[in-house]
Amino acid sequence: xxxxxxxxxxxxxxxxxxxxxxxxxxxxxxxxxxxxxxxxxxxxxxxxxxxxxxxxxxxxxxxxxxxxxxxxxxxxxxxxxxxxxxxxxxxxxxxxxxxxxxxxxxxxxxxxxxxxxxxxxxxxxxxxxxxxxxxxxxxxxxxxxxxxxxxxxxxxxxxxxxxxxxx
Length: 167
What we know:
The chain is an alpha+beta fold and about 170 residues long. The protein contains seven helices and six strands, in the order βαββαββααβααα.
């Protein structure tokens, strides 16, 4: 199965490092640069998206890079949530702040003036509490989870203590 996605590297590769990436296994991909960081547009054969992501991370590390994020559209504004679920912004804002509804709306994943929430979590919340069948795919959920894990890893968070939770 062909899995397509974009990963972000910890730094912008030099011309020589682009060759190292190719030699490390990125012959199925397009490493590029932009905005001072490296990007790799991947088209990788693997049985699952998760397997493709793990192999990309390993190949990048073999070339001396770290994958620090995956491009996904999981973090969205409350306005985007409102559009996707067919509600007004004010309705979603009040649900998010607990002024209306059953409570327990997913907390903001980012803020500073704009509340950004996980679309995957918000869609699941609307499904559970309002019976809305909102489109999130397995692919979206895998990309979101991998992105969150890679961002945590890039911050130096040791994820090994979480291993018993997965058992």
